[in-house]
């Protein structure tokens, strides 16, 4: 086959370091736009970004020329540097070290987008750590609680 083609959609999730609740409603829209732009700049169309005070969710189509680890590194590094310049309370901002990436069947994208859009309502009922554990279990990802939180 002379062409390389792909359509790989991933759901990315990561939190602020120590789940600090410093992603205020005032900063989130600009942060979400920034993350979407960074993703597009590395040729990974971003379908959606949303989150609450302590974490973000992204729905991204992974380019065939970048690994998911490279994408996440670019997203987290550049957004962390950018956030530190946005407000005095963010000068020491940091993301958690890890992240989760879940594969998404292309026919389930609308369901994922609705889930990401509904983050504020969802987190009135469930905290991030419980949500994260649930996502890992739903995707049959083994984890060790001792190494999940920083």
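^ structure tokens above, recovered residues below v
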């Amino acid at each position: 086959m002379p062409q390389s083609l792909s359509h790989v959609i991933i759901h990315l999730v990561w939190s602020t370091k120590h789940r600090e609740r410093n992603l205020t409603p005032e900063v989130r829209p600009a942060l979400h736009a920034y993350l979407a732009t960074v993703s597009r700049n590395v040729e990974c169309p971003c379908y959606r970004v949303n989150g609450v005070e302590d974490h973000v969710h992204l729905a991204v189509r992974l380019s065939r020329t970048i690994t998911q680890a490279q994408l996440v590194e670019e997203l987290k590094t550049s957004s962390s540097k950018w956030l530190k310049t946005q407000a005095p309370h963010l000068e020491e901002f940091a993301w958690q070290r890890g992240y989760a990436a879940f594969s998404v069947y292309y026919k389930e994208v609308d369901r994922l987008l609705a889930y990401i859009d509904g983050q504020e309502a969802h987190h009135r009922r469930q905290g991030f750590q419980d949500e994260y554990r649930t996502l890992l279990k739903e995707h049959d990802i083994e984890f060790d609680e001792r190494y999940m939180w920083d």
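The chain has one domain: 8-139.
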